[in-house]
Structures are given as structure tokens and as C-alpha cells.
Design a protein that fits this description.
alpha/beta; 11 strands; binds zinc ion; globular; 370 residues; 13% strand; three-stranded mixed β-sheet
């Protein structure tokens, strides 16, 4: 008799211990997702580090060639990429998975046919390419993003937030209809643990020269997201970094590399904050990707779009408790449109079932889902 009572008590305790946030997740460990995009960061630079053809004044607009070589150049591509993005290669790639190294027949393709930002973010967030989205104009997205879809569910309502450097995000995410929290462009940051810090940071942001009128510096986007994470504890946090793309359009490969390096530090900051908080530790999956690729040659690297060959190739990385540590994946072809359903699957939800156009989750990211 006594023997059978003990397991019954144990099972009872287990049921009590189950956190509210994991009700829909069942056997999944992921209760929280952090999605980070790094605008227009090329797979070439991610997988092989700084491109020697561009570390010069003529092709890369590099001002101090010696300094950039010192920071980012070494013969081995494996060492070079780690110099550029140390956290990505030492932690994310080692303990998670990375797709998109064309040299290893690992292909992530953009399917929207445009290969620029709004169509790319729509594809990442909505799960399909929409041919009607043919510009970066500030038009409210007619499609429902994974963020909006989740926000309609009671377990996620009011617990989804997005921080973007680019001021088009309130439209891409259809802030008005979706009701999700969006802070983008040079908007003041609102949520801080410390009110005095909030004032000081906003004062600083408003005192700096605005090199791009539509894109704030990623440091502010990161800071806002980090504070929000700690204060509001969202289920899904989207952080859209933007500088890499703008420096590339400006023809500044030195600044582009520096922005990629800083993006890596910001990702590290977000991930380490999650691991410091009991609520998020070992329950958070981080997904990192980009909206489009860029060209490969001495001029092409600056731009992207239908007329720039190769700008349809991107990359995706995932690290989290449900994702096996397979490292860089090889011989696999996936698409940008698979990110949205992957976010849902990690949370134990089926986004693809809500619309025929939505692509299935990435294979092998959620255990048991090949
Ligand atoms: Zn661009």
C-alpha cells in the first residue's frame, strides 16, 4: 500500500509544480523566445569572417586598413569568424544549430522574390512571402505576424514585445491592429527599472547626431529590449538590429564589421540576462536571422534586391533547451519562411495550421520534429 502512495504523491507534486507559462508547452522546455534579426548581415561574413577583398579603401571604404586588419583579419576562416562574432561561434553555434553556409550545402533561401527589408521581415514573421509587399513604405502589414497571432491567445496577451532600430517596424508588425508593444526608430525608450536612467538614456539619444533619420543606433534598441525583458518579462521578445545594413549601403565595410561585432555583443547581453533570471534560465530559445543577403563582389556587397545576385541567401541560428547541439548544419535546404512556425513550435503552438501559406517549422529544431 505504502509503496503505491509515494509515486502518487510525486505525480501530484509534479502537476502542482508545472508553471502556468508551460501549460501549452507540455513536454517542451521552451517557455520564452527571443528573436533577433541583424539587418542584411551576409552569410559570407557570418561563416568566414571579414572578407579580404573588402578590407581596403577602394572596395570597402575602409578608413584605417591596418586597424581593421588587426581586429578582424587572420588566415583561418574559422578563427576569423570567431573574431568577428565571438559569442555567436563560441556559444550559439557550439550549443545550438546554424543554417546557411552555402559552402557546406546548407542553404537558407528568401522566397519572397524581392530580397529587401519589408518583404523579408514579413516572410520571417508571417511565414510566407507576399508578392503585394513591394516597397519599404510605411504601410500597415495586411498579414498576421506570429507575434500578433500569439498575442491573441490568453497565455501570451500583453506579453509580446518588439524593439527595432528601423522606424518601419510599427507598420511591419501592424502595431495598431496587433496591439503588441513596439518601440522603434528614434522613439524614446519607455520601460526602465530605474526612472532616472530612463531620462538620462533618452536625453543622450536625443543629443546625438542622427546619422540616419529612420534608423536609431542599435545600442539603444538593445538597451531598451534588455530593460523591457527584465522589467516586463515577455513571453516573446523581438529585437531587430539595423546598423549592419545601413553601413553597407553607405559603402563602409569597416563600420559594417564593427556593427556586426556589436550585434554579437548585444545578443550575448540578451542571452546572459536570460540565464541570470530564474524565470528564463533553461526555458528560453534564442533565434537569430536576417531579412536578406547581399551581393558578393566589390560593389554588390553594398546592396541587395532582385538585381543583385546572391541576395536571396541568408542564414538562421537557434540555441535553446529543445534544440540539439548539432552545430553548423550541412546538406540541408530551408527557407526564411520557416522561422515563424519554428517560433510557434518551440512554444508548443501550431502556427502553420492557421493558414495554408505558412511554411512548416525548421527540421530538427524542436526535438522529435524532423
Ligand atoms: Zn538594405
Amino acid at each position: 500500500m505504502i509503496k503505491s502512495v509515494v509515486p502518487a504523491i510525486a505525480i501530484g507534486l509534479l502537476l502542482v509544480v508545472v508553471n502556468l507559462d508551460s501549460v501549452a508547452a507540455e513536454d517542451k522546455n521552451t517557455n520564452y523566445v527571443v528573436l533577433v534579426t541583424i539587418d542584411g548581415l551576409r552569410w559570407q561574413d557570418l561563416f568566414a569572417g571579414a572578407d579580404e577583398r573588402l578590407i581596403n579603401r577602394e572596395n570597402g571604404g575602409v578608413r584605417d586598413v591596418d586597424a581593421i586588419r588587426e581586429r578582424f583579419w587572420t588566415e583561418s576562416p574559422q578563427e576569423r569568424r570567431t573574431q568577428l562574432m565571438p559569442f555567436f561561434w563560441n556559444v550559439v553555434a557550439k550549443n545550438g544549430q546554424v543554417f546557411g553556409d552555402l559552402n557546406a550545402d546548407s542553404v537558407v533561401r528568401v522566397t519572397n522574390g524581392r530580397n529587401f527589408s519589408y518583404p523579408g521581415y514579413n516572410e520571417i514573421l508571417c511565414g510566407f512571402g507576399d508578392e503585394a509587399i513591394d516597397s519599404n513604405a510605411k504601410r500597415p502589414n495586411r498579414n498576421v505576424t506570429i507575434l500578433e497571432w500569439l498575442n491573441c491567445k490568453p497565455n501570451y496577451q500583453g506579453r509580446i514585445a518588439a524593439f527595432g532600430s528601423w522606424d518601419v517596424f510599427p507598420y511591419i508588425l501592424n502595431q495598431e491592429r496587433s496591439g503588441i508593444y513596439v518601440n522603434a526608430g528614434w522613439e524614446d525608450l519607455e520601460i526602465f527599472a530605474n526612472e532616472r536612467e530612463k531620462e538620462q538614456w533618452n536625453l543622450l539619444a536625443n543629443s546625438l547626431p542622427r546619422y540616419w533619420s529612420e534608423v536609431r543606433y542599435d545600442a539603444f534598441t538593445f538597451l531598451g529590449a534588455l530593460e523591457y525583458l527584465q522589467v516586463k518579462r515577455p513571453r516573446v521578445l523581438y529585437v531587430a538590429l539595423g546598423e549592419t545594413d545601413d553601413w553597407a549601403h553607405d559603402g563602409r565595410y569597416d563600420q559594417y564589421l564593427d556593427a556586426a561585432y556589436r550585434s554579437d555583443q548585444f545578443i550575448q547581453g540578451l542571452w546572459e540576462a536570460c540565464q541570470r533570471l530564474d524565470q528564463y534560465r533553461d526555458k528560453t530559445t534564442l533565434i537569430i536571422t536576417t531579412d536578406h543577403g547581399r551581393g558578393d563582389d566589390r560593389d554588390g556587397w553594398k546592396s541587395h534586391g532582385t538585381s543583385i545576385p546572391g541576395s536571396e541567401y541568408i542564414w538562421i541560428a537557434v540555441i535553446g533547451p529543445d534544440t540539439e547541439s548539432l552545430g553548423p548544419r550541412t546538406n540541408i535546404h530551408v527557407t526564411q519562411s520557416q522561422v515563424a512556425a519554428t517560433i510557434a513550435a518551440l512554444l508548443g503552438e501550431d502556427f502553420a495550421a492557421s493558414d495554408d501559406r505558412i511554411a512548416q517549422p525548421l527540421p530538427g529544431i524542436v526535438r522529435g520534429n524532423e
